[in-house]
Amino acid sequence: MDDKAPAPDSGKRKHAWIEVDRCSPPKRKAAERVNDFREIYDSYDEETVMEQARRCINCPEALCMEGCPLENRIPEWMMLTAEGRFSEAAVISQSTSNMPEICSRICPQDRLCEGACVVAGKADAVAIGAVERFINEWAFAHGEVVARPAPSNGMKVAVVGGGPGGLACADQLARRGYAVTVLESSTVAGGLLMNGIPAFKLEKEVVERRINVIKQRGVEFRTGVNVGVDVKLYELEEEFDAIFLAFGAQMSKELGVPGSDLEGVIPALPYLIQKNTNTPVDLPPVEVAGKKVIVVGGGDTAMDCLRTSLRSGASEVRCVYRRDQSNMPGSRKEYDNSIEEGAKFTFLGAPVEVLGDGKGHVKALRCVSMELGPADASGRRRPQPVPGSEHDLPADLILVAFGFDAFPFPEGSGFEKIKTSRWGTVEVDDNLMTNVPGIFCGGDLRRGPDLVVRAVRDGRDAAAAIHAYLVSRRLMDMSVEQPENVGMEVV
Ligand SMILES: Cc1cc2nc3c(=O)[nH]c(=O)nc-3n(C[C@H](O)[C@H](O)[C@H](O)COP(=O)(O)OP(=O)(O)OC[C@H]3O[C@@H](n4cnc5c(N)ncnc54)[C@H](O)[C@@H]3O)c2cc1C
To answer: 372, 378 in Cβ contact below 8 A?
Structure first.
């Protein structure tokens, strides 16, 4: 692409969405892609991405930015992309996100930026995610994603947990000259980006590439360190000036019905890790080929289990979800992809019992039909069982994708002094600081299971808050040592 190509007439561009339909980036055919775990989407070509970016009408008060937890400067990079100025577009995109090439792949855009797009009221929303992916991949391909260590400010911060929240915080702090150490219990960093989200949504090389950029910025990674067990909290407090806790919420919720202990009832996350990665996991090898698989739940994890099972050779794969399709928490795009790949759905169904084959193994899932009552606190209509509607669905494997809680802190870990909610999430103030000064928290550990983009937001916000905290503490220390500094204004 010629960077000096004349900018298209802006008046024409204002109405491009009328003439140009939204088009998705190339997607591999379902029959082909269920044979492997590679990503299913490719990037646009340059001509198409410019055409798609022209569909953005550059609203002065862009609702897409409000819909994005990172407040990405979408209209700006859309305008630059429409003009073929991909390099500048990528720089703007990276100014608000520490991993735009990742968020563009896995954000549920239909519920965030694209759901808020003004064009969506009249035609299909602008393809924000696909354009974001293109410009950032373009920047990587042209060697324009570079990082180098900032001059040291002499202060040290520990980040516990190497998921998206921890990575974003570490990246932001390293840019400010902090010596940052990420302590990660797994053998690899990346959190659920590596050990959870399957490669057909996000190839692991993409995550490794981002972690390498963060390493180039000078962040140190200590993997295989279980904080609270291998190293106690007080030891971190001694070694570091501040601590950011971002160790997620990965304790599987139980199925909680009679028969749940039968062989063949499996929690979703270890199953996904076993099938999608080489990371060691505490689950005997699960044979899926030729089996009937039921996945219970309706979120992203459930969709990932369905599609992983199809790729692992299951003869039938069915999702059982207690609400209807419009109330599913998962992304619409991933639901459509699951259907295309052959998954079946039973909506308004809830498990009441797992039936065994008399030899200790699962034979079927007994469900009850549900109807939707009034809305609950989350705003979604509460499902209620229909009396006498029990029915059995045959199953060889039942994958439980009901969601997650934070693991309780191990005894003697030193974490007992950190205040938690009754759901086990860590409580923080407006600056993401816990009840212990200097210890901050973000991501799923404070929110409960949520989204990558919100974990990144927390990481960025926490980095800013840690910086403000440490700078003001340093100024206070200086004023104690040098009384003439008392009253110095902190900016
Ligand atoms: C299967 C699945 C699919 C998902 N799909 C999507 C999706 O498509 N889009 C989306 O936006 N979100 C998705 N999510 C949600 C998203 O992955 C999470 O919201 C996000 O990863 C949370 O980031 P985090 O940094 O808070 O925690 P995590 O990603 O959970 O990372 C926490 C890290 O801390 C480490 N750790 C835990 N305990 C310790 C300890 N004691 N010491 C040291 N390290 C520790 C863990 O090993 C892990 O690496 C999905 C979640 C799952 C489970």
So the answer is: no
Q: pLDDT in tens for each of the 491 residues of the chain?
A: 444 444 555 545 567 888 899 999 999 999 999 999 999 999 999 999 999 999 999 888 899 999 999 999 999 999 999 999 999 999 999 999 999 999 999 999 999 999 999 998 889 999 999 999 999 999 999 999 999 999 999 999 999 999 999 999 999 999 999 999 999 999 999 999 999 999 999 999 999 999 999 999 999 999 999 999 999 999 999 999 999 999 999 999 999 999 999 999 999 999 999 999 988 899 999 999 999 999 999 999 999 999 999 999 999 999 999 999 988 888 889 999 999 999 999 999 999 999 999 999 999 999 999 999 888 877 778 899 999 999 999 999 999 999 899 998 888 888 999 999 998 999 999 999 999 999 999 999 999 999 999 999 999 999 999 999 999 998 888 876 655 544 444 43
> Residue 443 Cα, ligand 1 centroid: separation in angstroms?
8
**pTM confidence score:** 0.93
Q: 250 C-alpha to center of ligand 1: Å?
A: 7
Alpha carbon separation from 452 to 104, 105, 144, 345, 470 (Å, rounded): 11, 11, 24, 26, 27
Query: Which atom of ligand 1 is found nearest the CA of 229?
Result: 41
* Domains detected in the chain: 10-141 (1.10.1060.10), 156-249+406-480 (3.50.50.60), 253-403 (3.50.50.60)
DSSP 44: P
- Whether 160 is in the pocket of ligand 1, judged by its Cβ within 6 Å, is yes
Q: Cβ(162) to ligand 1 under 6 A? A: yes
Centre of ligand 1 from the C-alpha of residue 190, in Å: 8
Nearest CA to ligand 1 atom 26: 443
Contacts of 394 (CB under 8 A, 6+ apart): 292, 363, 364
Residues 247 and 47: their CA atoms lie apart, in Å, by 42
Q: What gap in Å lies between CA 153 and CA 388, rounded to an integer? A: 68
* Residue 334 CA, closest ligand 1 atom number: 8
Contact between 330 and 300 (Cβ < 8 Å): yes
